[in-house]
Inverse folding.
C-alpha cells in the first residue's frame, strides 16, 4: 500500500518564476492538505482540499493556489516566486473515518 | 489563535538515559493533539493522537500523555535510532494542524 507520494523531490527556481508541485494521497484517502516547512521550523498550514474544493486556507497570499482532481490527487501552484518561498513543501492526506493526517516526504524548493 | 510551544529546542541523551519532551498548547476546543517524528530531509511520521486530558498512549520506548494545557512525550531507555526531531501539533475548531517548532533529540551510543 503506497503512502503519500510527492513529486518532484527537489526543485530549483529563480525569483519571479512559477512552480507546480504534485501529490498523490494514500489509498482510500479523500482529503489533502498542504504545508510549508522552513528550515528549523514546524510545518505551517497552507490550505486543505476536499471534494475538489478548497475547504480551508491558512495565512498565505493568493500567489499560493491549489487544485484537487477527481482521483483525489492535488497540485500546489506558487506564482511570482520570492526568495522566502524556499522551503520543504509537505502534502498530507486523511481519510473520512480517522482524523489523522499522513505526510509525504515533501518537495524541497529552492528559489535563487 | 491556536499556539504550540515545545521545549527544549534540542536534547542530547546517552543511550539508555530516559527523559521527557514537553508540548504546551493553547487551543479553542481541542479536537486532537498529535505527535510526529521527523528524520532529516523526510516528512513527519505519525506517532500518536490524544483526544482528552488524562489519556495516555504507548509505542515501544515512547509514551505520550495529555493534560488540559500540555502534553509530554516520555522516552524510556532511548537508542541511537530514536534520534530525530519530534513535532507536536494541535487541531482545534478547524481542520488544520498547528505545529510547534519541534525538539531535536540526539541519542549518543
Amino acid at each position: 500500500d503506497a503512502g503519500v507520494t510527492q513529486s518532484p523531490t527537489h526543485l530549483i527556481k529563480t525569483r519571479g518564476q512559477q512552480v507546480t508541485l504534485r501529490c498523490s494521497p494514500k489509498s482510500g484517502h479523500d482529503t489533502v492538505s498542504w504545508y510549508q516547512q522552513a528550515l528549523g521550523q514546524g510545518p505551517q498550514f497552507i490550505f486543505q482540499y476536499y471534494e475538489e474544493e478548497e475547504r480551508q486556507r491558512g495565512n498565505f497570499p493568493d500567489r499560493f493556489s491549489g487544485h484537487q482532481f477527481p482521483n483525489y490527487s492535488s497540485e500546489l501552484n506558487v506564482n511570482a516566486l520570492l526568495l522566502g518561498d524556499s522551503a520543504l513543501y509537505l502534502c498530507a492526506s486523511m481519510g473520512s473515518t480517522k482524523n489523522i493526517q499522513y505526510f509525504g516526504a515533501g518537495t524541497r524548493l529552492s528559489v535563487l | 489563535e491556536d499556539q504550540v510551544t515545545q521545549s527544549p529546542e534540542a536534547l542530547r541523551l546517552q543511550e539508555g538515559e530516559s527523559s521527557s519532551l514537553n508540548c504546551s498548547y493553547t487551543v479553542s476546543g481541542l479536537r486532537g493533539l498529535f505527535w510526529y517524528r521527523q528524520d532529516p530531509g523526510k516528512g513527519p511520521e505519525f506517532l500518536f493522537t490524544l483526544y482528552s486530558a488524562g489519556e495516555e498512549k504507548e509505542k515501544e520506548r515512547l509514551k505520550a500523555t495529555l493534560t488540559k494545557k500540555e502534553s509530554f512525550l516520555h522516552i524510556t531507555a532511548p537508542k541511537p535510532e530514536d534520534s530525530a526531531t519530534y513535532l507536536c501539533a494541535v487541531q482545534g475548531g478547524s481542520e488544520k494542524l498547528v505545529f510547534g517548532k519541534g525538539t531535536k533529540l540526539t541519542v549518543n551510543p
The two ends of chain A are 37 Å apart (CA to CA).
